Amino acid sequence: MIDPGRAFGTGAHPTTRLCLELLQELEPTSLLDVGCGSGVVSIAAAKLGFAPVRAVDLDETALEVTTANAAANVVVVDVGVELLRSELAVMNIALDVVERLLPALPVRRAITSGYLDSDEPRAEGWHSLERRVRDGWAADLLELRP
Q: Domain coordinates of the chain in residue numbers?
């Protein structure tokens, strides 16, 4: 159950679905949802066994909506503005934001989306492990090189 309220994200967009597909194939670990919007990715991750799950957004409304949606779905999601160290990040946001944030993320792997299949995120030290495409959109599983 997701009520986006005034926040972004119902889970129906191809980029969200691609992120969730990639997430389902990974072993549950700690997760950072950057640009959480309505919390759909955070909530799905918690239901898949990821823990702890940290939802981050600069929009106070998104944090309020994520908190309410997590409670409605009876899952634990830590909501805030700080990027806490995690094993995996998910970012379903614009390509320029993905590329700007990747170097600053305290994670070693990231699922990124929110951009067209003709675009590909580039950030020093990161390389692609897997790419998925649907309806003209793309999602990537990236890893930080040691």
A: 14-144
Q: Give the tokens for residue 85.
A: 């160290």
Nearest to 41 by CA among 134, 139, 107: 139
78-80 and 53-56 as β-strands: parallel, antiparallel, unpaired? Answer: parallel
pLDDT digits (tens, 9 = 90+) for 77-111: 999 999 999 999 999 999 999 999 999 999 999 99
pTM: predicted TM-score of the whole model, two decimal places: 0.90
Task: Give CATH superfamily name and number for 14-144.
Answer: Vaccinia Virus protein VP39 (3.40.50.150)
Whether residue 115 is predicted with pLDDT greater than 90 in this model: the reply is: yes
What is the DSSP pairing of strand 53-56 with strand 31-34?
parallel
| DSSP letter (8 states) at residue 73 | T
66 Rama class: left (phi>0) / alpha (psi -120 to 50) / beta: alpha
Output the six-digit token pair for 1. 């159950």
Instruction: Please enumerate in sequence order all residues whose Cβ is within 8 A of that of 111, keeping only pairs 6 or more positions apart, or say none.
Output: 19, 22, 23, 88, 89, 90, 91, 139, 140, 141, 142
